[in-house]
Amino acid sequence: MPIYEYRCEACGERFEKLVRSARSDEPVVCPRCGAVETRKQFSAFSALGLERAASGGSYCAPGRGSG
Predict the structure, then answer these.
(1) Which of 47, 52, 60, 63 is deepest in the core (most CB within 10 A)?
(2) How many CA atoms lie within 13 A of 44 on its CB side?
(3) H or E element: which one contains 45?
């Protein structure tokens, strides 16, 4: 199951939620205020990973102290 990042349009809370299906019509409820006016956000981490994969880069960050 994928984890999606959301932002509540009512209170501004940012949160993550495990979603069973990307096509689910079930509204995502804000854990802070209970509103259903939430919007899926783009994850900078996954976007960076896709960019590196497309350019042939590595998914792993360099280790500390390694040369």
Answers:
(1) 52
(2) 0
(3) helix 44-54
Please report which confidence band the pLDDT of residue 9 belongs to, taking 50, 70 and 90 as the band edges. very high
Query: pTM for this one?
Result: 0.58
Sheet of 3-8, strands arranged across:
14-18, 3-8, 38-41
Helix (H), strand (E) at residue 47? helix 44-54
CA dihedral 40, 46, 51, 54 (to 10 degrees): -110
Rg for the chain (alpha carbons), in Å?
16
Which domains can be identified in the chain, with CATH numbers? 3-45 (2.20.28)
pLDDT above 80 (res 62): no
Count CB atoms within 10 A of the CB of residue 6. Answer: 19
